[in-house]
Amino acid sequence: MLKNLCQKMFGRSLWVYHANSGGCNGCDIEVLNALTPYYDAERFGIKLVGSPRHADVMLCQGPAMRATARALRAAYEAMPAPKLVFAIGSCACGGGMWFDSYSVLGPVEKVIPVNYYILGCPPRPEAIIYGVAVALGLLPKKAAPVHFKQAEFPIPRYHPEDLSGRGDLVIYEKAEKV
Amino acid sequence: MGCGGCANNCSARCILVFDVCQELRILQYVGRRCTYCGRCAEVCPEKAITMSQEFETSTNNIGDAQQRLEVFMSTCQRCGRCFKDETALEKLKMTGYRFDDLQNQRWIFGARAYQENEPAVKDIAIEMDW
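^ Those are the sequences you sent over. The predicted structure of the assembly is below.
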């Protein structure tokens, strides 16, 4: 449903507004690189606009900082209603290398809701275009979390979630024998 | 192997180590703030971490970038001699059993790991007008 809505709402030209809230300009350069004739994002109708009031998509670069958090929020609220927010780069996605510094609030999702995350420091222009394609429903996403367990201990001490019972009587559900 | 050298050399501190007990260590890679500097792959004595050219990692759920390994450590004492440290000071700070905050995805240094009642790292509260 979200995919259909996205295709309906954002099927035509996407106008992007490009908000840097204290990044290092690396992601800015990559975004501008994605708009150059080499990658030619304008053939999809993606156009850079200077004001958030004209924009459909907000590209956030840099972490939310103490000084710029209000301005970022104001820019988000100035955008007209069907809006997408992309967090570009590891600063915007997770706070970056200085996530616990005194002037950094953290990822931009602490200040504004983020729809899509594009990882990388900075992400390649191909990665940015791929992220837009994922958001429009043209391509499936490939990332998936990885969980790996080397050994499972059949000792109740390591599996407190499998213990049941009350009072003095405690039963370990995975035990083969009592 | 689970020596944790990648965690100690990570510049974005995005690899967390949690020692459940002597035998079990949880290594959690928080991909959301990884800067892909490659320092972890450089320091790994077993070459278990490799850098790849895959860049199509964009996602709508940030949990997709996460990796969680539960490694069997047998009788390892976490002395930290199997990887090279930056300075002697770093070595003092990093070795031994570690209890990082997996929920809030932050490091907790050894001396503060046992202060259970107060959070080791607090978020900065600032006034916002909304």
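Helices of chain A lie at 2-9, 26-34, 69-77, 89-94, 125-135. The mean pLDDT of chain A is 79.

Shout if you want it in another format.
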